[in-house]
Amino acid sequence: MKGISNRKPLIIYTLIGIVFILVLGVLFVQVAKHYVTKAYEEQLHYDANFVAEDFNLNTDSSLERQQQLEHYSESFPIELVLYQTNTQEYLHTFNRNETITLNELIDHQLNLNSALRLDSRLAVVRQINENVRIIVVSEELPIEYLNTTLWSVVIILALLVGFFIWGLGNRLYENYVTPIKKASDTAKSLAEGNYKARIHDAPYGIVSELSQSINTLARNLEYITSKYRNQNDRLKTVVNNMESGLLLINEKGLTRLANEPFINNFTNKDTSILGEVYYDVIEHKELNDALQEVIFMERKKQLTIETVQGNYFEVYLAPIRNEHDSWKGVVVVCHDITKIKQLENIRKDFVANVSHELRTPITSIQGFVETLLDGNEHDEEIVKKFLNIINKESRRLNALIEDLLELSTIEKDDFTLYKSHFYVTELMHDVDQVVENQLKEKGLTRDLYVDESIALYADYNRMYQLILNLYSNAIQYTPGGGHIEWNVTLDEGYIKFQIHDNGIGIPKKNQGRIFERFYRVDQDRSRQTGGTGLGLSIVKHIVEAHEGIIKLESEEGEGTTIIVLIPQKI
Question: Is the pTM of this model over 0.90?
Answer without folding.
Answer: no
